[in-house]
Amino acid sequence: MSSLTDNTSANVAAAKAGAEDTIRRGPPVEVVRYGVGKRINHWITAISLILLLLSGLAMFHPSLFFLTELFGGGQMTRWIHPWIGIVLFFSFFILFAQLWKLNLPNRDDVKWASQIGDVIGGHEERLPELGKYNAGQKFIFWGMASLIIVLIATGIMAWEQYFGLLTSIPTQRIALLVHSLAAVAIILVFILHVYAAIWTRGTISAMTRGTVTGGWAWRHHRKWFKDMAGRGRIDPAE
Amino acid sequence: MANTMDSPRTAVSNPPVQPMETNLTQRDLIRRSATSELPQPERQLTPVAKLIDVSKCIGCKACQSACVEWNDTNPEIGENVGVYTNPHDLSADMFTLMRFSEWINPETDNLEWLIRKDGCMHCADPGCLKACPSPGAIVQYSNGIVDFVHENCIGCGYCVKGCPFNIPRISKTDHRAYKCTLCSDRVAVGQGPACAKACPTQAIVFGTKEDMKKHAEGRIADLKSRGYANAGLYDPPGVGGTHVMYVLHHNDKPHIYADLPDNPAISAVVQTWKGATKYAGLAVMGLAAAGTILHGLFAKANRVSKHEEQEAQEAVDHADKREENA
């Protein structure tokens, strides 16, 4: 048993530092869902995505061309859009490298997705107990990841200033069509992501202060919560 | 004195001496990029056209020089790679280019030296204008001229993708698109384009589109009488006709003239991108945003209950106990 005790004390030491995936005894009970690194990473990605959708929409539909004013005019918008895309690409994939394993689909996701009516109805008690991510969150994760790859690849082909001669004009036409379709898709994923975070009350603090309430973790990600409690990743009482 | 001549009839004569009102202003626009509701002009200018008779061209490049001179551009001095085409391609500083092709006629086994003056075709249905996202950066006047308005250009290069003839070029200096203007600044005051004025053999002629078609008929009849059975006028219907036309001695195969498209049209990909995608995409995004707002206002939020907070608390206490027992 001594080895387990050692293990637990190591976990407690980690918990002390306010590390991710630890329970704070409270009361009230809180859970650290995201460390500061991931939160900074998330917000750089989020701000980039918002700036990209504003500058991109300005060039997508004439009725939204006025959005170029936010960036200092059409020329500035055209210049800055791809550079923000580069920032987003790297920022997102640093996040991706840390989160992809937890977002691999499993059996619970199939069950969860098949009971989507209960999800929307807020009948959490009928759904399987879940780990750190549910199938909806995983869908957003993989949707963002794949669309960002499509967008960066087609975006580079359409980047006239540096890559105007990289591919042929017929290829660039396809690239722009795919780029705009992928952009529409990622905006839909973005809307879903933001709205899910708002609708599921208590979620946003995970990305601001890094913590959620114990009840939030118990309700939405019970397997994750039980796992932390079971492994003794609990902050000692103050 | 009232002006009776709205469009110049020739490039050869000197400019008119009678006072002439400048035309080709905002009130003569029939199309304006990224603008849905453009009031149609009160007057219709006589459509103009440039006719390039490749069979009369001697390849002297006077048209290129005149173009550089009039537009005050400075094409980079390049390197001779053993072909007559010089510079190697159109650029933001070279709006027109004589392209030289050596073609062996399979019927006669004769080498034919084909020279085509490349440049903007001034399509009736311009792909560049269709693709342009910036309001007023590309305009079309009622006389048929398609012009780039540089102060509105954002340098995105969509016009390059929209054009079926691969004509527009983006300047690396000021990041704006450039191409032949059909000398709109000369035409507006009653003069023909600089290239046509400079052409020593009158292989390039300019006038109303109707006159140019008539002139072409005479040239085609002449070519046919000399054994060019397939001589004809290149005024491609796929782009609604053009305001720069060619007389080709082999009009059945335009591609032999340095890849002049046989049946140019705005690419279906561009049509989809600037058609269905643009409108359906905006609608879908708008509906999604509106839908979530409505759901947010009227549907019940997913809240954590007090009971669940207690259960979490109990789970933590329970875990503590287990640890103590261990």
TrEMBL record, chain A:
Keywords: Cell membrane, Electron transport, Heme, Iron, Membrane, Metal-binding, Transmembrane, Transmembrane helix, Transport. Pfam families: Ni_hydr_CYTB (PF01292). It comes from the Bacteria. Its cofactor is heme. It is found in: Cell membrane. GO terms for molecular function: electron transfer activity; formate dehydrogenase (NAD+) activity; formate dehydrogenase (quinone) activity; metal ion binding. It is a multi-pass membrane protein. One of its GO terms (cellular component) is plasma membrane. The keyword Ribosomal protein does not apply. Residues 33-210 form the Cytochrome b561 bacterial/Ni-hydrogenase domain. The keyword Metal-binding applies. GO terms for biological process: anaerobic respiration; formate oxidation; respiratory electron transport chain. The chain crosses the membrane at residues 43-67, 79-97, 139-159, 174-199. Belongs to the formate dehydrogenase gamma subunit family. This is Formate dehydrogenase subunit gamma. It comes from Rhizobium wenxiniae.
UniProtKB/TrEMBL annotation, chain B:
It comes from the Bacteria. One of its GO terms (biological process) is cellular respiration. Residues 48-76, 111-143, 144-173 form the 4Fe-4S ferredoxin-type domain. [4Fe-4S] cluster 4 binds at C132, C153, C156, C159. The keyword Transmembrane applies. Binds 4 [4Fe-4S] clusters per subunit. This is Formate dehydrogenase iron-sulfur subunit.
